[in-house]
Q: What sequence folds into this?
């Protein structure tokens, strides 16, 4: 319903003034439909729409307000939906790598702390395990499925965290290889090592004990598994550390020679040198790689020792034409003498490197050993031929096997049903394989001997000899003195032989009759 309002007109006063408009605004009142001299603007816009709909517009309503309202409503609805589908989490990042999520910062820190502590428990639960890795925590929201599938665990993180514990290393010339958990333990190990080599007693007074190297205990960082206990550290110092070296081969050296000289094995040398086999010959001047054990520390002990030492006895040989040629019989056993001796010494890791005698007194004279040596004709060997193997006690010396390779093809007769009279052992090897002297002695035969082909016989003294048969090359001559391990021949296929091999015998002469023993017993 349209409301009409009549304008009010003030009557003229006695002063002759004209009727006045609204003094306050100098405009028509708010309820007038039009004003003289103004343009009517209600045809356009929202006001016109409201008027056509017969709705009165409120003075604060506008298009901007309505749009803002709807935008806010949509944003709020989306936010509510997002928060309903996601959860707040803390992302764990180790050295720029994300390892998963935890529900809170406290839980994330506990997971990382557990991972670091677990690594420390492998050594000692009391060790304060630490890490220098960069670990950061990032707060964010992720959907619930992602959180459930990628929750961080201490086991996952422990695989990538580098931990350390405070340790105390034994520094040798500024190199730290052995680490203990405390300074007291490290010092105790160094003192124990010196005491191990010093060993003072009533006959041995120690003046000085010191290390050749610059040694000190230093504080360091160590991986938990590298921390050693006192007993383990002491054992490591006594055993030494493996170290690779290049060994230059000397003239005539074999792999077995190199192995003995460097306290290792032929197999160990072959393992370190590609293309090398146990049968490979060595050329003088070339080098082979070896792994040898070197001490971490060298302990030097200087002191004074009083002790009793043996005096070696002399040996006298008496010729006897009634005794078989080149045989010997002990007529008088030799006895070592004794002497009291006082000397200063220098030891390095327990071995004497210097000894200066101060005084000595003989307390027992040695007894000379007298040996009767026969000059009769030589003895016949099995299979023909003869050799002057001197008689003696028949005690077999330390025998070196004459080959570095090969396998037994025919055993000694006592354990060989097919050849019960076989006086030696046959070893199958390629022709030309080096053959070495089983012990030191004198060459008493080096010639052709029928079915044995080329043979060498060595008299080692004390009623013991050895024979090497079917040789292709003989490198020694009769009367020549040889040493144990010296190359004397090359194997072959001469004489009565069905293939390249070495026939090896050990011959015993105690009573003028030759007998043979199984060589494999002394292999």
A:
């Amino acid at each position: 319903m349209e409301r009409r309002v009549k304008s009010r007109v003030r009557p003229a006063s006695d002063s002759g003034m004209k009727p006045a408009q609204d003094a306050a605004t100098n405009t028509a009142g708010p309820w007038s439909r039009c004003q003289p001299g103004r343009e009517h603007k209600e045809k356009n816009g929202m006001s016109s729409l409201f008027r056509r709909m017969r709705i009165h517009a409120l003075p604060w309503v506008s298009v901007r307000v309505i749009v803002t309202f709807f935008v806010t409503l949509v944003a709020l609805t989306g936010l509510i939906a997002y928060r309903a589908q996601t959860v707040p989490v803390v992302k764990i990042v180790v050295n720029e790598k994300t390892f998963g999520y935890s529900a809170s910062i406290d839980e994330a820190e506990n997971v990382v702390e557990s991972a670091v502590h677990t690594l420390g428990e492998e050594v000692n639960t009391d060790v304060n395990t630490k890490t220098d890795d960069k670990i950061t925590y990032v707060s964010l929201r992720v959907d619930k499925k992602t959180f459930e599938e990628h929750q961080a665990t201490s086991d996952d993180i422990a695989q990538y965290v580098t931990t350390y514990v405070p340790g105390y290393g034994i520094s040798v010339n500024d190199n730290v290889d052995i680490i203990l958990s405390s300074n007291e333990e490290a010092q105790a190990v160094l003192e124990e090592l010196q005491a191990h080599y010093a060993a003072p007693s009533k006959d041995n007074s120690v003046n000085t004990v010191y290390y050749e190297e610059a040694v000190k205990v230093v504080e360091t960082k160590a991986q938990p598994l590298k921390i050693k206990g006192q007993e383990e550290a002491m054992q490591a110092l006594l055993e030494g550390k493996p170290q690779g070296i290049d060994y230059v081969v000397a003239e005539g050296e074999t792999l077995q020679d190199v192995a003995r000289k460097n306290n290792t094995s032929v197999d160990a040398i072959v393992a370190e040198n590609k293309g090398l086999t146990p049968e490979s010959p060595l050329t003088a001047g070339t080098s082979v790689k070896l792994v040898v054990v070197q001490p971490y520390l060298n302990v030097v002990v200087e002191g004074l020792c009083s002790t009793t030492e043996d005096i070696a006895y002399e040996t006298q040989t008496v010729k006897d034409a009634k005794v078989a040629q080149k045989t010997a019989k002990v007529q008088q056993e030799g006895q070592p003498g004794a002497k009291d001796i006082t000397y200063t010494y220098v030891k390095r890791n327990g071995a004497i490197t210097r000894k200066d005698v101060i005084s000595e007194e003989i307390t027992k004279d040695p007894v000379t050993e007298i040996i009767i040596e026969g000059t009769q004709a030589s003895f016949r060997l099995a299979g023909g031929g003869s050799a002057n193997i001197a008689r003696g006690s028949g005690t077999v010396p330390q025998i070196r096997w004459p080959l570095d390779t090969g396998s037994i093809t025919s055993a000694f007769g006592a354990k060989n049903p097919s050849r019960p009279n076989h006086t030696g052992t046959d070893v199958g090897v390629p022709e030309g394989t080096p053959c070495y002297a089983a012990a030191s002695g004198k060459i008493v035969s080096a010639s052709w001997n029928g079915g044995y082909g080329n043979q060498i016989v060595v008299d080692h003294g004390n009623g013991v000899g050895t024979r090497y048969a079917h040789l292709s090359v003989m490198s020694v001559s009769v009367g020549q003195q040889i040493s144990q391990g010296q190359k004397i021949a090359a194997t072959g296929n001469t004489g009565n032989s069905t293939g390249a091999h070495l026939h090896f015998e050990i011959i015993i002469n105690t009573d003028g009759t030759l007998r043979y023993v199984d060589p494999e017993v002394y292999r």
In short: The longest helix spans residues 63-85. The two ends are 135 Å apart (CA to CA). Residues 1-44, 53-58 have pLDDT under 50 and may be disordered.
